[in-house]
Write a structure and sequence with these properties.
Radius of gyration: 27 Å
Shape: elongated
Number of helices: 5
Strand order of the largest sheet: 1-2
Strand content: 15-25%
Number of strands: 4
Largest sheet: 2 strands, antiparallel
Distance between the termini: 55 Å
Structural class: alpha+beta
């Protein structure tokens, strides 16, 4: 059974806070089980988060020049991925856009493995966040993709060269002294 926001967890939270759970679900002037009328929830009008200037910051997120002019560029040697030329991404969409870009690197790893008789062992994507020094907004500043491909030993020279390089690289790194 899937638990949603009005499942047992929210009832537990509401009971811990001494909030009448009936008030959360029925705010139409009905009577609560205790016999008291249920009040309609109050709407608190505040400025949105993009309009507030946070203490110690130069500007609000809405007026932030740093966020307006931040550009992203790919630093890899793969020519067929996005952001080879510097491009702007808004802080609100930076997470999804950077993740989509990193997935292009993962797709390239699978393509490279299939063309050279290999298999992708792992593909890990990490997103890196930062806080804008001007407005204090958190955004995704970039990402890193790490892939591991195992090439099958066969008669093609590419796989042999990779395996020979790996043998030379890792030869002697794990030594068993048990005799």
């Amino acid at each position: 059974m899937a638990l949603g926001p009005i499942g047992p967890i929210s009832n537990l939270i509401n009971s811990d806070l001494n909030i009448n759970t009936a008030a959360n679900h029925n705010a139409t002037g009905a009577i609560a089980p205790s016999g008291e009328p249920i009040e309609k929830p109050r709407v608190i009008e505040n400025a949105s988060e993009t309009e507030k200037k946070h203490p110690g910051r130069k500007s609000s997120p809405q007026d932030c020049e740093t966020c307006k002019h931040r550009k992203y560029i790919d630093g890899s040697n793969e020519a067929d991925v996005s952001f080879k030329a510097a491009a702007h991404i808004s802080p609100e969409s930076s997470g999804s856009r950077v993740m989509a870009h990193e997935r292009e690197h993962v797709a390239n790893a699978y393509q490279k493995a299939s063309q050279n008789n290999g298999k992708v062992i792992s593909a890990v994507v990490a997103l890196h966040t930062a806080v804008c020094p001007e407005c204090g907004r958190t955004y995704v500043e970039g990402g890193t993709t790490t892939t591991k491909i195992r090439y099958m030993k066969d008669d093609n020279g590419y796989a042999k060269a990779i395996n020979n390089a790996n043998d030379a690289k890792y030869n002697g790194t794990n030594v068993d002294f048990r005799g």
